[in-house]
Write a structure and sequence with these properties.
Integrase_recombinase_N, mainly alpha, Tyrosine_recombinase_XerCD, 2 domains, 7 strands, DNA polymerase, domain 1, DNA integration, DNA recombination
Length: 426
């Protein structure tokens, strides 16, 4: 398991070494004895330091109660500690998706091969997994649809195994996996091999070529993943009309305005929002400090982590904070049907449910979820021709292509190219 090193321009130092010029500690050797390595200023070079550690120094540095470690191997305790860091550094959604993928791989392998799944996995197993779960055109070697013949799609997973996986709740429904799900599960298997430094079957040319061809086949059939509708300003205002003066209504209005106006925050970021990161600027509004996000895993603070909330969004947030008497801890909290406000924060799943339920109450057509707030913010920025750099600073997007896909879609129908037929004659 690889452990990242520090910056490449930093020099290794001996743990406990004092900076050059600092007062040195008193000698640990008896009076009149020859000075040991511990009495001398610490060398700046690791090789020189190693040469200067004599037998006396080793005796002082060697606690008898602590077992020696092998510098060429990772101990069991260290491996467990590293594993805990890896787990704690991942979002709950990522961990859940990895766990689901791992369970499915184990169940599918047991059903297909009659034995437990062990790593490393062979290339033929990965190829079989892909053809078991990806759809292709039947009786069509060249990938073209024959005119006049009905299109028939097939995949190689036997129906008996398919039904068994569904009945045992390892699979949600019978049939092929969605392309995004299939690619994610192959990616999870690849990551498992990489973390254990095993021969990775997913990196072999046969697997990579098959995945490319599967993508191409889906694209030629114009199969696209279902995207959630974007909650642009007009749709958001319709949803806000469903939020009454009840505790849930006041909370939901504040939540929706906060999530949308601060740059289209993800549901996990909304659920994790705390008063401690909220700066009150009086009549001007608030500034929320987003210390951690999907694109800022290490919590680096700069001007892009400051999310302004003004106008309608600030008023809605103030009304909720006053009603719930929120002074510390999570901003958005559970509200019982009776109207009682709990100290318990909302979960990311609850944020998604609020968006879905409110969109249904507003009578909006299409599928909406928490991600609709994010895509809606970017789409609206494109409609209002907000400079892309300013909008990206609010959303925190790192991928320019993903951002521009939403941004450009915001004003497609208003572009000059879309109205060339109706433009002024020459």
């Amino acid at each position: 398991m690889a452990i990242s090193e520090g910056p490449c321009d930093s020099k290794p130092t001996v743990e406990g070494a004092l900076p050059a010029g600092s007062p040195q500690p008193e000698s640990l050797a008896p009076a009149g004895s020859a000075p040991s390595a511990l009495d001398r200023p610490p060398p700046t070079d690791l090789a020189i330091a190693a040469q200067g550690v004599d037998a006396h120094s080793l005796a002082v540095l060697r606690p008898l109660e602590v077992p020696l470690l092998d510098p060429q191997a990772v101990s069991g305790l260290t491996e467990a500690s590293v594993g805990q860091f890896l787990v704690q550094g991942q979002s709950p959604n990522t961990l859940a998706s990895y766990a689901t993928a791992t369970r499915y791989w184990s169940a599918w392998f047991a059903a297909r091969y009659g034995q437990p799944l062990t790593l490393p996995v062979s290339v033929p197993v990965v190829l079989q997994f892909i053809v078991d779960h990806a759809e292709r055109l039947a009786d069509c070697d060249d990938g073209q649809v024959t005119t006049g013949r009905p299109v028939r799609l097939v995949h190689d997973l036997p129906e008996e195994i398919d039904r068994l996986l569904v009945a045992t709740h390892f699979k949600g429904k019978p049939g092929p996996l969605a392309l995004s799900t299939l690619l994610h599960r192959v990616s999870v298997l690849s990551t498992a091999h990489q973390l254990r430094e095993l021969d990775n079957p997913c990196s072999y040319p046969a697997v990579r070529q098959l995945i490319r061809m599967v993508r191409t086949g889906y694209a030629r059939r114009q199969v696209r993943p279902r995207q959630q509708m974007a909650l642009t300003r007009d749709h958001l205002e319709a949803i806000l009309q469903t939020c009454d003066a009840s505790p849930r209504g006041v909370r939901d209005r504040a939540l929706l305005c906060f999530a949308w106006s601060s740059g289209g925050r993800r549901r996990s970021e909304v659920a994790a929002a705390t008063v401690e990161n909220l700066q009150d600027h009086g009549a001007r509004g608030y500034i929320y400090l987003l210390g951690h996000s999907k694109n800022n895993q290490e919590g680096t603070f700069d001007d892009s982590t400051q999310k302004p909330l003004a106008g309608q969004a600030a008023k809605a947030l103030s009304a909720w904070l006053k009603l719930a008497d929120v002074r510390e801890g999570p901003i958005f909290r559970r509200v019982l049907k009776s109207g009682r406000i709990l100290a318990e924060p909302l979960t990311p799943r609850a944020v998604r449910t609020i968006v879905m339920n409110r969109s249904q109450l507003a009578g909006l057509a299409g599928h909406y979820s928490a991600h609709s707030l994010r895509s809606g913010f970017v789409t609206e920025a494109g409609r209002q021709q907000v400079p892309a750099g300013e909008a990206m600073k609010m959303t925190g997007h790192r991928n320019w292509e993903v951002f521009m896909g939403y941004y450009r879609a915001g004003d497609l129908l208003g572009s000059s190219t879309a109205n060339m037929l109706d433009g002024p004659p020459r």
